[in-house]
Amino acid sequence: MNEQSLTLLQLNQRIASLMTVPETQNVWITAELSDVSARGGHCYMELLQKHPDTGATLAKARGVIWANVYSRIATEFLAATGQRFASGLKVMVRASATMHPVYGMSLVISAINPEYTMGDLLRRRREILERLQKEGVLELNRQLEWVEVPLRIAIVSARGAAGYGDFINQLYNNSSRLNFKTHLFEAVMQGERTPTTIIAALNEIALQQDEWDCVVIIRGGGATSDLVAFEDYELALNVAQFPLPIIIGIGHERDITVLDYVANMRVKTPTAAAEWLINRGNDALEYLRSMGNAILQKVSDRIAGSKEQLSYYEALLPTAPLTAVERENARLRSNMMSLAQIGARRISPELARLDHTMKSIASATDVVLRRRGDRLNSLQDMLNALSPEATLRRGYSITRVGGKAITDASQIPSGTEIETTLANGTILSVKK
Amino acid sequence: MSNEMNFKPVKELTYTEAVSELETILQMMQGDKCDIDRLTDYTRRATELLTECRSRLTTTDEQLRSILSQLEK
Q1: Minimal C-alpha gap between B57 and chain A (Å)
Q2: CB contacts, 8 Å: A180 with chain B
Q3: Which CATH superfamily is domain A134-284 in?
Q4: Which chain A residue has the Cα nearest residue B21?
């Protein structure tokens, strides 16, 4: 056996030199990150390509970013995507194939295109949302009604997480001393176990659903925030269908995940979640205060009004009897007038009858009188015929002395003045 | 008083029921339909409801301390 043989090192070096050609250097590739870890400033990972439907691994290679490059790439990537460089992300990187005699092939990464990752995240999120929409569950949690004042809060978080402490401190140090009741349902809030542990916590809460008013899922926006763990269909489905309203308070303002679209309420931070709950309680207290004031106001108004009414009657009291007497008088007067009128109506016909009777009487009297008068007249005629005047006219005369009629001439001395009355005129003479 | 027999004990009411009863009492008072003989009853009832609602929303110092001490463990 005279065949020439190579040492392993020689072969590996040959492979290395064959591999290190322009075609494998600084090539832009797309891959999914897995097993990302940082050691000594360098970042190591597995780059994967999976079958889009089955998820079976189609290709796999070791990747590394050397410390001098990594610090720049990590900052750039975070600024552009809001994401840490972490497992589960799809990336577009510029890589060069290298062959190490001991460690084998690695892809050394020198640049990254964050837009690709962004696009992929958005696409993945959109796919999840579209699927939930199609299944008719997308809006379910968002449409849930809140209880009047949510005070019983089920918390899904990791014990010792900064966000959890912030939330509790904020919640219990509220100035109104709102009576919150909380319990922590623990879950892993980063990495691959995130969706399954959160779902488990939610299931536990669902079993005692009546004990709680709402759920808050919170996590501080710490240095290890790989939000890609939350971009999960199963988790989104569980949140969307959860029977209690869910508040999501994960990380910081820019960190949006699919959960922010399906949960009832999205807040920027755990502290903001506590603030929101405190505000609801304060609103309720304020409403109670305003109702208390309104009732107090109404009661005092009512009492004041009644007092006013009483004092009005009180003032009325002294004059009321007089007024009543006055009123009675007026009534009497009016009655009297009516009486008079009624009387007049009855009396006047009577009067008329009387009148008529009197006239009849008068005319009857007249007749009688006239008849009497006629008789008197004839008597007068007879009398007239017998009167001294008539006798005088027949030639008789009356002789008077001193106004007295003389019937015996012997009683008259001579020289006495005698007055003789004739029918016309008088003769004065002296007795011889 | 027989009037008070109509009122359900506040402890048996939910918060929402208590608040809506308060609103009803207030409306009645605003509508001037409230019989002055019952004013005292209604005011007493309203106060009772308000106190109960408030006490359900707020907590005492002792409760607060015990909760926060649990947190520190």
Answers
A1: 5
A2: 59
A3: Response regulator (3.40.50.2300)
A4: A291
Q: Which residues pair with A374 in a beta bridge?
A: none
Check CB contact under 8 Å for B50 and A172. Answer: no
Helix axis angle for A270-316 and B15-30, nearest 10°, is: 30
Q: In what order do the strands lie in the sheet with A426-430?
A: A404-405, A398-401, A417-421, A426-430
Note the pLDDT tens digit of each residue in A416-432: 888 888 888 888 888 88
Domain interval for residue B66 = 12-72
Residues 6+ positions from A337 with CB-CB distance below 8 Å: none
Range A23-27, long-range pairs (CB < 8 A, 24+ positions): A24/A96, A24/A97, A25/A96, A25/A97, A26/A94, A26/A95, A26/A96, A26/A110, A27/A94, A27/A95, A27/A96
Q: What is the pTM of this model?
A: 0.62
With CB atoms and an 8 Å threshold, state whether B29 touches A298.
yes
Q: HSE-up of B12 (CA within 13 Å, CB side)?
A: 3
| CATH of region A8-112, choose from 3.10.150.10, 2.40.50.140, 3.60.120.10, 3.10.310.40 | 2.40.50.140
How far out from the chain centre does Cα B66 lie? 26
Q: Which of residues 162-191 of A touch B (CB under 8 A)?
A: 165, 168-169, 172, 176-180, 182
pLDDT tier for residue B4 given thresholds of 50, 70 and 90:
very low
**Among B residues 42-61, those touching chain A with beta carbons less than 8 Å apart:** 43, 46-47, 50, 53-54, 56-61
Among A194, A16, A13, residue whose Cα is nearest residue A97: A16
Residues of A in contact with B29 (CB under 8 A): 295, 298-299, 302
Q: Which of A227, A187, A409, A216 is nearest to A420 (CA)?
A: A409
DSSP secondary structure code for residue B58 in this structure: B
Closest by CA position to A288, among listed B12, B58, B59: B58
Q: Domain coordinates of chain A in residue numbers? A: 8-112, 134-284, 390-430
| Counted domains in chain B | 1
Question: From CA B55, how far away is CA A151, in angstroms rounded?
Answer: 12
| Residue B5: inside a domain | no
Q: pLDDT for B14-40, tens place per residue? A: 888 888 898 888 888 777 666 777 778
Average pLDDT over residues A39-50: 93
Tally the residues of chain A: 432
